[in-house]
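Blinded run. Sample ID left blank on purpose so nobody reads anything into the name before looking at the predicted structure. Input follows.
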Amino acid sequence: MENTLKKSGSAAPASGLKEGAPKGRGAKDVLEWVMHLIFLLCGIIAVAFVLFISIYLIISGVPAIREIGLVDFLFGQEWSPTASEPAFGILPFILTSVYGTAGAIVIGVPIGLMTAVYLSKVANPKVAAVIHTAVELLAGIPSVVYGLVGMILLVPGIQKAFDLSSGACLLAAILVLAIMILPSIISVSETSLRAVPEEYEQASLALGATHLETVFRVSLPAARSGVATAVVLGVGRAIGEAMAIIMVAGNVANMPGLFTSVRFLTTAIASEMSYASVGSLHRDALFSIGLVLFLFIMLINVFLNVFIKRKKEG
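Blinded prediction complete.
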């Protein structure tokens, strides 16, 4: 009798464990399935937003391009939508946006990249903490404040330095944009450099390379993808900025010149959308400008991604 009780007592917990294990495993499977579904929905929503924006811009922008003419719209040099004979040429806006963005990248990328190298590989923790605080402050400053400071300090300074009738010009816009893209470039580039495996640098140092040679010949090439992402973010910030540029560039539809008052694609939309009547060709043309701007950003992203992919394969 005692042996029977012992056997039954020892068998009960074992059976309980076997019955409980599938239940716990089933709950984990359900939770994993639910989380997988949530992540899938988030990805679908992100893609859907891009598709909706693309479709809306195409539907809103293509009719004006058809009416004006693709060649006249893209390569026309006169923009006067309120004249007796309206003209809707956006070549000055396109060239100004290209020159302004390129100038900001030429100035901002080297400064931002060298700052990221200094913070991640050279600076001591105390100095790095101070610079990090300054970079975070730059990232948190609203664009209108950049424009206000540029209008009060930079524009009069350029006017006096180059003896111009007005300092609101393309040069002022380039300098403001170069400062505005610094936080994105510094943050992303620094993160990418810190993510490079230490084994790469240790192997380089073991082969006799100096610290700076290791940074520029090993760490930077290994972090190429992240640096390119930083450049893409900087280009997106520069080409998509409007408020600060309105305040320092003059907002005049001229062909671009370094000391000429100019208007960007974004500033054309921001400055005229408020008084363009609904259903008019003027308003449709502004949507067409938005479509052109959207295509520019997409082409830049595709170009850089293809360039990075080819570098990796090589």
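Unblinding after everyone has recorded impressions. The chain has two domains: 2-68, 90-313.
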